[in-house]
Amino acid sequence: MGRVTVRRPVRKITADGERRRPDSLAAEEPLELRVGGKALAVTMRTPGHDVELAHGFLLSEGVLGSREDVSTARYCDGVDDQGRNTYNVLDVTLAPGVAPPETGVERNFYTTSSCGVCGKAALDAVKLRSRFSPAESTFAVKTDVLVRLPDRLREQQKVFASTGGLHAAALFDPDGELLVVREDVGRHNAVDKVLGWALQSGRIPAPGHGLLVSGRTSFELVQKAAMAGIGLLAAVSAPSSLAVELAEENGMTLIGFLRGDSLNLYTGDHRVLT
C-alpha cells in the first residue's frame, strides 16, 4: 500500500529568522480503476481505502446498487522500476448479471484530486438519476447536533492534523455519531470512500444518515449523495449554485457554512429541527 504521508525537508522563514526542518505532506498518487480488466478512470488520490473508493465511485456512477454487485476487487499490474507493486491499479469484477459501465461513464482524461466529473465522454452523462430517491428520506436532525459535527470531524482527521492538506467526509446519524470518517486530497474521493464503506457494510441506500464534508459543496458531491439515497448533505464551506439546484431538484436538504453555532440552510428545511 502506498504511503499516506511523505516527509520532505522545508526551509521555514518567519519574522524571527529561518530554519530547516522536515515537513509532512499528504501523499497524492494515481489510481487506475478497471472494471473487468478494462480501464475506466484514473483519479489522483491519497492511498488507502482504495477498494472503498472503487465501490463508492461505481455507486455514484450508477453501476452498483449493493455489495452483492461486486464479485472481486484486487490490485494488479502497476510495478515500479524495482518490480514492486505500486498498488495503483485496481480491477473490479462485477457479479454475474450486473451491467458493465455505459460508455458515458468512461473518462477521456484522468480526473484530478479536485474534479470528480472531469473528462466525461458525454455531457448528458454528467447528470445521473439515482435508483434510490433521496426525497423519500425521513432523516431529520436538530441544529444543536449539527453545529457540533465539524469539531467531531476535525478530531478524527488524523492525517490532516499532521499535514493540513486533506479533505474529509463522514456519514452521521440523527444523534450526531460519526459512523465513518475518510480523508483524501480530493473532496470527491473522500466522499467515494465513505459511500464505498457504506455499500460494503450493507447500508446503501442510506436514507437514515446524513453526509458531512469538510470543504465546499459542488455539483458532483450532491450527485454522489443523491445516488446513495442520502437526503441531507452538510458542508463546512459554501455550495455552488448548481449544487443548490440539484439538491432542490432531488428533494435533498443542503446545508452550508456549518461553522461555530450557525449554518445556512439552502434547501429541504423540513429535515432540520430547531
Automatic annotation (TrEMBL):
It comes from the Bacteria. InterPro entries: Cytidine_deaminase-like, FdhD. The active site is at C115. Its main location: cytoplasm. The keyword Kinase does not apply. It is found in: Cytoplasm. GO terms for molecular function: sulfur carrier activity; sulfurtransferase activity. The keyword Cytoplasm applies. One of its GO terms (cellular component) is cytoplasm. GO terms for biological process: Mo-molybdopterin cofactor biosynthetic process. Keywords: Cytoplasm, Molybdenum cofactor biosynthesis. Belongs to the FdhD family. Required for formate dehydrogenase (FDH) activity. Acts as a sulfur carrier protein that transfers sulfur from IscS to the molybdenum cofactor prior to its insertion into FDH. This is Sulfur carrier protein FdhD.
